[in-house]
Amino acid sequence: MRTIQTEVLVIGGGATGAGIIRDLAMRGFDAILVEKRDLTHGTTGRYHGLLHSGGRYAVKDPKAAVECIEENRILRRIMPHCLEDTGGFFVVTPWDDPDFGDTFMEGCRNAGIPVEEISVAQMLREEPLLNPKISRCFRVPDAAADSFLATRLNAESARAYGARIWTYHEVRDLMMDGQRVIGAVCYDLVHDEEVRIYADMVVNAAGAWAGKIAAMAGLDVTITPGKGVMVAINHRVLNTVVNRCKMPSDGDIIVPIHTVAVIGTTDVKVSDPEHFAIEPWEVELMLDEGEKLVPGVKEMRILRAWAGVRPLYQETKAVDTRDITRAYTLLDHETRDGVSGIITMTGGKWTTYRQMAQVTVDRVCEKFGVQRECRTHLEPLPGAEQHGGYHWLGARFADVERRQAYGDLICECELATREDVERAILEGDAKAIDDIRRMVRLGMGPCQGGFCTFRAVGLLHRLRQPDVEEANAALRDFLQERWKGLLPILWGQQLRQERLDEFIYLSVLNVDHLPGPKATRLAPVMYDPPTGEAPQGRV
Amino acid sequence: MRMNTYPDVIVIGAGLSGLTAAWQLAARGHRVRLITKGWGATHWHSGCIDVLGYFPIGNTPPVSLPRETLATLIANMPEHPYALVGIERLEAALDAFATLCHDAGYPLHGSLDSQWLLPSAVGAFRPTCLAPETMMAGDLSRHDREPMLIVGFERLNDFYPELIAANLIKQGHLARGTLVETPTLRRQKAINTLVLARLFEQATFRAEFIAAVKPKLGKAERVGIPAVLGFDNALAIKAELEKAFDRPIFEIPTVPPSVPGMRLHRILTRAIERAGGDIRTGMQVVAADTKGDRVTTIWTEAAARRVPHHADTFVLATGGILGGGITTTYTGEVREVVFGLPVNAPTDRMAWLYRDVLDERGHPIFRAGIRVNSSFRPLDGETPRYTNVHVIGTTLDGCEPLRERSFEGIAIATGFAVQDALPTTNHSTSA
Ligand SMILES: Cc1cc2nc3c(=O)[nH]c(=O)nc-3n(C[C@H](O)[C@H](O)[C@H](O)COP(=O)(O)OP(=O)(O)OC[C@H]3O[C@@H](n4cnc5c(N)ncnc54)[C@H](O)[C@@H]3O)c2cc1C
Known about the structure:
The structure holds two protein chains of two kinds. By secondary structure, chain A is an alpha+beta fold. Chain A has 16 helices and 22 strands. In chain A, β14 (241-244) and β15 (253-257) form a beta hairpin. Chain B is α/β, with parallel strands linked by helices. Chain B is 29% helix and 19% strand. The interface between A and B is large, with 60 and 58 residues. The structure holds flavin-adenine dinucleotide.
């Protein structure tokens, strides 16, 4: 058992926690962040990839819309290299009410979101695959965002300011002294040991898990996890974020991100943020709705499906989870519950993570009785200056060309070079192959790890020299991790691809007969098995 | 064969089963046309002939006496392709194939009475029945007194000698891994197995390689390298290196593209052409015309042009889901693409796959296959759907070729045996 002392302990390594630890470190706090798996393991790594303009909430939730457009402007300044400036359309399809367009325009104007109606002809010039039956189109400043990169850069910046970030550390209990939280008992998955972290203040930034953390201090925080399913198509069918112009609903957005386009999403209440299934009807619904925006999408190759849970906080019970406000909530448990030493930040969106962090750290300052100004909106994230501008689709390719690195590709689909992977293994402190994936997008393309898994394990073994049984298990873990997202969408070309991957891993390499455990403690957490039933009220 | 003489047999698909069938049928005097979109798994597989590695599937120890285990398999699984072929014809097929390779100067070794255990490119023990001579010295039933040396190449992304060595050590062998580079390799922009195979065909490169490896040999009793010893003269290249190193060397099959797989491919395509067979690649069969219980014509598409092909008999060797001969849709439909033959597969998509990617039972959907009778005619219920269509290879029902490690064995055995189902020919043969 290890014991450590710090000023502030942040629980949760999603966008919110990473934003908070950066802000804390920049304001001079001694802080530690613990995350039970790798950074972005939670909702942040399974979201839709959209930097909201606020348009989506302009009619329904004006408060959220204002927060979004404010932060949209700031994030474009501090992390352009994590964003692709795709712009966004709100389109009226034959299934939508054309008059909603006017309500939408008005909502945008009220929230301060730049909006412009363009002709359908212009829309089709820009996005020829969009449904020609679309009747109206509005342009807003949506963008595509890489949350893996953004979260990692927040953490990197925090580290540079002296913070410590410990992944694979799970909070199992909170330590109390009477009505005061004095720290957390963590379990270090990699070293299989307990770590006690004493802190003057604990910040609960565990997203949809925030209720579980709060309960460890006897606090009642009700989070309704709202599950959303997303499906990635193997083509950039669009280069613009496209939203249906209607009240937010299922499957009404397509986001182009990196080499794919993602259709999302659903919203289904689940009882546990960790245990839920991806149901066939949810995948089919995504394809059916996607088809309305881009005819033909259904026949295209689907790469993967995933699901995340919205951390929706509620004081009272509500029926449809989408009716609960999306604006974030800061809970000061000292005033709310009479328990000091802990505050909770939950709810919100990826887009507003920085503002949420700012509000949280303002409160921490207040608790410590100090006055220190927030600077996270002024100082760009690491790499922004060198990069000079937004990410663009051809950037990786241009980089490979510039470096003449064709021969060095470990992941051909996502253009990750040996140098990238080696850096992720050595400097990035990757513990599992999946950690390398989150850093360099390894295995995220069409073959879903078919070729690169073996290569990444070879490099990991070469550079780190773990016991070979660990390397073997890491290989099997990653095959399983990819399988997790493939299971719901394996048919057609992608099923054939999977059989080719079996050919390589079973027939040629015989990895199922390598020595060592079948899986490690770092093995992926699988989705629950689907029930196969249609939900109530749906066919 | 002339373009205007129409063939009596059309083989569709040029994986190992289609190639074997075309070769055997052509050699026996049939006028054969082989129509294919690509080259099937021949450029991916290990270059060994796996007949039966694990049985029942999921078993941990590999099959050690294939002949005995095959008898059990045949007794228990009457629908398995091996049961249709029988051990005798399987053995005849392997013999014929081994003879072809031997005559091409690339001998394969092994029989149904033993199983090779050879190292894979991650250092697992691969059970296989026939292996090329270039891999023989990798035999893991033999133990060394000094660590064997596994040699890889700097910047070759598909071969990790340290990982192989570490796994061999874990499994009771003595081994060490090392990486080499040579002046020629330093100048190469990209290094992969194909580039290396071409380089090994050059004497100057071999000299560089010998110079780079020699100082590292130590007391190693044998030397393992990725399977890149050229395309056509692997044996001579191996002999030259062994002479220089004064100890045996062996190839380890790599992930695709697989040089030893391509060697077998070349041997087969040459045999087909020698026997007068006509190989047409880049053509996808898109439709078929039928009359009663016979197929009369198939239609191919290449460069957006539709072409009809007539024949008396059609042999379907399109490789199941892996080869693209069977496709699936998200509604749970499982379809044979050329003739729309009935496929035996679970129709409920929820029952297609298990939750563990490496589940020992093998995923049910990957057993999707076409049921045939003893003459490989596809069945609709209990009667043949067409009388002049035969289905062979891993598109057949009743097997799980990857989990069984029977992929090449089934392909060659059924590709060989299908000739018995065809009418004998009276064409003269030049083979
Ligand atoms: C389907 C879907 C689509 C979305 N799309 C968008 C979008 O396009 N744009 C947008 O702006 N927002 C979007 N959102 C919202 C956004 O993703 C979330 O609001 C945001 O990612 C939440 O970040 P977080 O850090 O608060 O939570 P999380 O990312 O969930 O972080 C919480 C972390 O806490 C960790 N944790 C839990 N328990 C413990 C413990 N005991 N010990 C240690 N660590 C623990 C978890 O592993 C997790 O990593 C979407 C949400 C969903 C569900």
